[in-house]
């Protein structure tokens, strides 16, 4: 413009992080707790987390500077699945609890959307959600009589943690980014 070249769009970056427990999913914490960006190399600290994982939850966290994709992945309209594994207290998980989770659970902020639920062991559940309310898995499990002892997000849309070690991050490949875009196009 006016004889000067315009700066092009900044290159898009997409990372998958295996977030450990004890980190806040934000760029800064006013109370001084560790934040997920502390786990990344300096050149990747301009990225933003896609959604949140609680301080006490570990697992798959996406980070990107691709605002359009991030918004689509987080918006409930697109129903991008998030897969969690919860170890719960309160004895073996019975059929009634599983049915309630599958049907949707009444919480203080309304009834949850139905979840896909699979019992992995007497005290372990796999839950697949299509919405992301604050502390939702923990609150759902508590509502059916099973407090969550540990929680890990193992999948987000088409992506899984694979063998990524806790605290490690990796760049997403082009096919993975396209798979995320496809997952976030439901109309």
Describe this structure as you would to a colleague.
The protein has two domains: 14-76 and 159-183, Alpha-Beta Plaits, CATH 3.30.70.580; 81-156, Alpha-L RNA-binding motif (Alpha-Beta Plaits, 2-Layer Sandwich). The model has no long low-confidence stretch (mean pLDDT 93). It has helices at 67-74, 95-103, 136-143, 174-183, and strands at residues 14-19, 48-49, 58-64, 82-88, 106-107, 110-111, 116-121, 124-129, 148-156, 159-160, 169-171. Strands 1, 2, 3, 4, 7, 8, 9, 10 and 11 form a nine-stranded mixed β-sheet that branches. A two-stranded antiparallel ribbon has the order 5-6. It is an alpha+beta fold. It is built from four helices and eleven strands. Helix content is 19%, strand content 28%.
Care to give the gist of this entry?
With 187 residues, the protein is of the alpha+beta class. It folds into 2 domains: 14-76 and 159-183, Alpha-Beta Plaits; 81-156, Alpha-Beta Plaits (2-Layer Sandwich), CATH 3.30.70.
Q: Which radius of gyration do the C-alpha atoms yield?
A: 18 Å
- The CATH topology name of the largest domain reads Alpha-Beta Plaits
Please write the string of helix (H) and strand (E) elements: EEEHEHEEEEHEEEH
At CATH's second level, what is the architecture of the largest domain? 2-Layer Sandwich
CATH homologous superfamily placement of the largest domain: Pseudouridine synthase I, catalytic domain, N-terminal subdomain
Number of strands: 11
CATH class value of the largest domain: Alpha Beta
Strand content: 25-35%
State the helix count: 4
- Name the helicity range: 10-25%
Average of the residue pLDDT scores:
93
* Broad shape: globular
Number of domains: 2
Distance between the termini: 38 Å
Uncertain parts = none
Q: What structural category characterises the helix and strand content? A: alpha+beta
Largest sheet, in brief, is: 9 strands, mixed
């Amino acid at each position: 413009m006016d004889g000067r070249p315009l700066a092009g769009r900044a290159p898009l970056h997409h990372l998958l992080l295996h977030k450990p427990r004890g980190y806040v999913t934000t760029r800064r914490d006013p109370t001084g707790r560790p934040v997920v960006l502390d786990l990344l190399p300096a050149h990747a600290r301009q990225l933003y987390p896609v959604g949140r994982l609680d301080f006490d939850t570990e697992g798959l966290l996406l980070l990107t500077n691709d605002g359009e994709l991030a918004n689509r992945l987080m918006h409930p309209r697109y129903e991008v699945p998030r897969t969690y594994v919860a170890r719960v207290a309160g004895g073996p998980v019975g059929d009634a609890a599983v049915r309630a989770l599958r049907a949707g659970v009444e919480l203080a902020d309304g009834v949850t959307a139905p979840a896909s639920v699979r019992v992995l062991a007497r005290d372990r559940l796999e839950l697949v959600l299509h919405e992301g309310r604050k502390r939702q898995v923990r609150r759902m499990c508590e509502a059916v009589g099973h407090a969550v002892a540990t929680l890990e997000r193992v999948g987000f849309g088409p992506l899984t943690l694979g063998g990524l070690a806790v605290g490690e991050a990796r760049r997403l490949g082009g096919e993975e980014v396209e798979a995320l875009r496809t997952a976030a196009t439901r109309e």
